[in-house]
Structures are given as C-alpha cells and as structure tokens.
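User: Please run a holo structure prediction.
Assistant: Happy to. Please share the sequence and the ligand.
User: Here you go; the ligand is zinc ion.
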Amino acid sequence: MPALLLAVLALLLLAAPARAAAPTTGFESRNGASFTTHQEEQAFLSAVAQGSPRVRITEAGRTKENRPLQLVEIGAPGPVGAEASRKRPTAMLVCSQHGNEPAGREACLKLLRDLAFTEDPALVGVLERTTFLFVPTANPDGRAANQRANQDDVDINRDHLSLDTPEARAMAALVRDWQPDVLLDLHEYGPSQPVIYDDAVLWLWPRNLNADQQVHDLSIEMGREYLVEASEAAGYPADEYGQAEVVDNDVAQTAGDGDEGIMRNAMGLRHVLGILIETRVDFDVRESELGPADQAKVQRRRVDSHLAVLSGMIRFMSERGADAARVTAEATDRKIAEGAGRTAPVYFGGADNEKPAAADVVNPPPCGYELTDAMVAELEPRLGLHGIRFDRMDGRVLVPMGQAAEPVIPLLLDARGERHKAEAKPLDNCATASGRPGEDTAGGGPGGTAPGGTPVAPPAPAITPVKSSPSCASRRTVAVRLPRVRGKVYRTRVHANAKRVRVRRGVAYVQLRRPRTTVILRIARRVVRPGGRRVLLKQSRTVRVCR
Ligand SMILES: [Zn+2]
C-alpha cells in the first residue's frame, strides 16, 4: 500500500478492520496473490449485508450461465431505495465489465465493505446524503472464464445502446430505475509499447456530441479536479485516455471516442456523468532498477490505484454531489425542451475531439419517429430499458423527440445511427403527437419522467477540511524547484494539476488561477545517465504552496 495522502481513504482503511464483523475478500486474505473467486465473492457479499444495516443486495439479472448480476446499495443509516435515490446525489460503480480486468472488481468489493462498516463521521455524513451503488461483478461469466467478453463472446462495453446482452440490459435497467448522477466504469489496460499509455491511471468522459453540454463539462471537471488529483496525490500518474505522449508530443489515439455503444457515452446520452477509468496492469521496469516486483505486489498496486481514483469520486460526491444532481436533472429538462422545440442538431457521427461530417449533422432534427408494430415487437425490451416513451395514435406508433430519452432515440431508431436497431421513419410533422402524455409506455420503469424540479440536498461539507489563508486566495505564480536527478536532463515536461507549466533551469513556474493549498506536479524528464544510458524518468510530487 503506497502512502495515500487523501485523508478519506486513510480513514476508510483504518476504520474497516476495527469492526469484527467486517469480512475480508479472498484477495485481501491472500495479500494480493490471487483475485477473489466467485464463491468467495458471494460469501463476502452475504457477510457484508448481514453485518451492516447500511447494505441492501438485489439481483438485477442473470447471465447466460445463470450467475447473478447483483446490485449493492449503500446508504446511512440504511439504504433508501430507488425512488429516494433519484431525488438525491447517487453514484454507481460498474466493476469489471471486461472479465479479464479484475482489479476494478477487487477495489469495488473493498470499498463497498469499507463504506458499509466505516465509523468515520464525515464519511457516514456522506452516506446520509448520498446513495452509492455497486455492480461488483458486471460480467460474472467473463470473470469466471477470465475473458474480456461475455459467454456469447459479445463485448458488453460496446452493447450499451443495442442492449443485446443480459449484462448490458441489467445495467440499463438500473440506470433507468435509479437515475444515478455519476457512473464510473472500471477497467484495466496493458500498455503495448513503452511510452505510449504508460500512466498508472487513464480516464475519459462522454465524447458523444448528443450528450448534454453541461453533463459533458461537469464530467470533465470531476475527472480533472477530483479523480486525477486523488490518483496523483496517491502517487499514481494519471492522464486522459486516448492521448499518448510520444517523445514529449501529444499523439491522439483512437479510443472509441464518440461510440454510443460504450458505457461512458451511453451514460452521457442518459444524463449521467459517465467516466471510464483504466488502470495499468503491468509493472513499469523503468520505475526501478531492480526489475519487476513480485506478482502480488503488482496486483495490489492495480487494486490500490483504482481505490485512489474512487477516493476522488467520494470527495466529488461529498463536495459536488448536489451540483451533479442538479445538472443531471436540468439536462433531462433541457433535452425534453430541445427535442420538442427541435432546437439542437442530432449527430450521427463525430465526437468532441472529431468534427462530424456534414452528412452526419441533422438540423433541424426530426420531431419524432414512426414505428411499425413489428418494429416495436422486435425492439422489445430496448425501448423500456432506455426509458423511451411512445404513443399510439390512429393505429400508428409514434416516438416523440420531446422526452428525456431524446439523445438516445435517433441513434437507436434511425437508419443513419451506426448501431441502430430499427429503421423507423423520421417525422417532420408531429402535430398530432406532441403535447400529449403517452397513452402507452414501454416497460414498467419510471424512465421518461423528468426528475426536474425535485429538491436536492444542500451542498455538502468537504470530508477533508481545506486550510485557507489570505495568501492562498490570491492569483499568483509559484516557483517550484524540481528534484535533482543523476545525469544530464535533456528534456523536461511538467504538468501541474493536469495543466502544462513552464520550466526554466530546473524550476517550474506554476500559475495559481484559483485558491489552492497544494499543487500536484507530474514531472517527466529524459535523462542521459552518467554511463550514457538514456532513460525516461516520471515522478509525481505534491507541493504545499501556502498554509
Ligand atoms: Zn476494459
């Protein structure tokens, strides 16, 4: 366990073993030598639920091999259920939907246990205002077989629009019923080449252009200001997924970008701050001259780096959970209005980092789509799972765009959508369909109802009190001398709080644009060692800039 600087995680870890009733995972009891088995997980979850009044475990579905897809809900003093959770800040964790990426699942098991048993008053306070949802094993068949896809060889993380798999369907139903404000999707990656993708943690937000702009922006803010900060404060360098550095130049990599089948995008389309987290699976030999460490140590690092990111998520929910709940509720209202007023284009291509082709931009968009009964039957149960409402009018089936599911509708129902499941007729005149409540709704969930206008909790106090003094609040530049290295430095690149900073003669000049007490420096230097060997040195430093 590296020295974690975030008080929240430290408190979690200290608090957990104090209670005799708190069980340990198989991974913990073997000190990381191997991952928790399915049977161990089931016994562990039962013990957590029996030992803590804060926990409720329900089944959200079954896999092809009949393993349960479970949801663990945590709140204090007890779980509040879906209806109350829709009205308060709610975060959902999807753990290891790729079955051969088990570290996220281990981190989830540990965190849900720690939240269930913590006696730290600040954390209990967060649990009183916030619902935490875990799908601890999102692909149980894939995990059992240690493979990426599910038992039908479908990549679940391309299926969140099409909903062909029982796993993606279960998660879609959970999102519809609980309307989480934040969703973290936990993965692992193996860097194929040195230098490209070598950070301990990578992350990415919803890039699909149909996602609500404020949901998009707050997702990025959460990532940069909370997830990256927590990760780097714990000693895990973090960067954006799809952005690799090659010899100090940023190189854009293809990483799914706007693909609406990927969870982070599908969540953005459903007004959820959807974030992909990838942690590095292997040991970076450049970090030590002693060579690779033992496997258990590497596996503990894989789990710990996820936990560091999750501590940032908890801090976000504590400090900004009410903002997230407001933004996601307002996004629902905005998309209903946009769809009804046809005031925003629909994008069938492009991403926030890729200009869409002219043919992929439809402006004004259709006011709705007309389906046949055969299409409705064939789409079953997807309309309901996406919360798409439809009306029956004079023997026709009409899907109006003026509803909460507006961003999903064209991508699913229009032949121009890359992953469409029907070729419905786009409508230019919806006069008969608009303004009326649905006579018929798909599915039984509350999808399509706007939670806008529901009261949300007042802003929550921070877990970690930030000390401030007048000198911290002023906008200024702080000079930080970089640590000495052995050999001659021939290239230096420094980021402070994820922004590039100017360096001259071994001193980084960090501009403080808002009050901060600490700055996290990520230092990458190319060095010629005294023997002539060239190495890339990466270091992370947390610097206190005022008191
Ligand atoms: Zn993955």
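The chain has a mean pLDDT of 84.
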